[in-house]
Amino acid sequence: MDRREFIKNASVLTAMSAVSINPVFAEGVLNGFDKLADENGKFVLQPLPYKTNFLEPVIDEETVYLHYTYHHGGAVKKANKDLEMIQKALKENNLAEVDYWTKKFQYHFSSHVLHTIYWTNLTNKKTEPKGTLKKMLEREFGSVDKAKALIAKISKTVVGAGWGILGYQVYTDRLVCIQSEDHHHLTQWGVIPLLAIDVWEHSYYLKYKNRRGEYVDKIMNIINWDNVAERLEVARKLAK
User: Fold this and answer.
1) Rounded to the nearest 5 degrees, what angle is found at the Cα of 153, between the Cα atoms of 198 and 33?
2) What is the DSSP string of 83-145?
3) Are 205 and 199 in contact, with CB atoms under 8 Å apart?
4) Contact (Cβ atoms closer than 8 angstroms) between residue 209 and residue 175
5) 131-239 belongs to CATH 3.55.40.20
6) Domain residues of the chain, as ranges?
7) Residue 33: exposed, middle, or buried by beta-carbon count in 10 A (0-12, 13-18, 19+)?
């Protein structure tokens, strides 16, 4: 089994529905930032689609730089390493090692996916949901404001480190709000992430210290709802 074949068939990739080596999250968005891997199947960290001071004053420049370079970038490097170690263990018929590195891969690759979504979900101006996204938020949650309140609440109350996620449930053509502890726990099969709010401390601690709630409230004001809408459009196409 070569590297490309392994990535193509890896259970984690299959499980996350929207993930492949092509930019299927939102085709063409922000100059291909959603392309998670190169043509050889190696995971890559695309150049940040804006300057590190773009999200000021909500997220400070130093946090963006450190977060993108070392946390997201670190996850990409480790995901590649995990796959190398899985291949090595398979060649040596060491199934215990395969199990260990597969768990590592789930963690690091999920981090790559969610961070990629996170960066494109943010802008430096206020936008509002519209079109199909607005209608589906109203249908599922009663109103856009209620949907925003729920997204903020689940983000603030993640136990430990993790994410607040608005996702598209493929089987039912519905939107759902879920929490993810770390990068991969408590997620739902068949849900494609559309909006991912990072509440690991590294995403806010330099500016907000321990005030996660304040960070979430501020970040809700710079959500790029046009990006979320584009992701929804692509997800619904995938579901057909």
Assistant:
1) 25
2) HHHHHHHHHTT-HHHHHHHHHHHHHHHHHHHHHHHHHHTB-SS-----HHHHHHHHHHHSSHH
3) no
4) no
5) yes
6) 3-120, 131-239
7) buried
| Residue whose structure tokens are 């609440």 | 153
**161 three-class SS:** coil
- Write down the pTM of the prediction: 0.87
Amino acid of residue 87: Q
pLDDT in tens, 135-148: 999 999 999 999 99
91: pLDDT strictly greater than 60: yes
Q: Quick one: tokens of 85?
A: 């170690």
* Cβ neighbour number for residue 70 with a 10 Å cutoff: 11
- Between 130 and 39, whose confidence is greater? 130
The residue type at 224: N
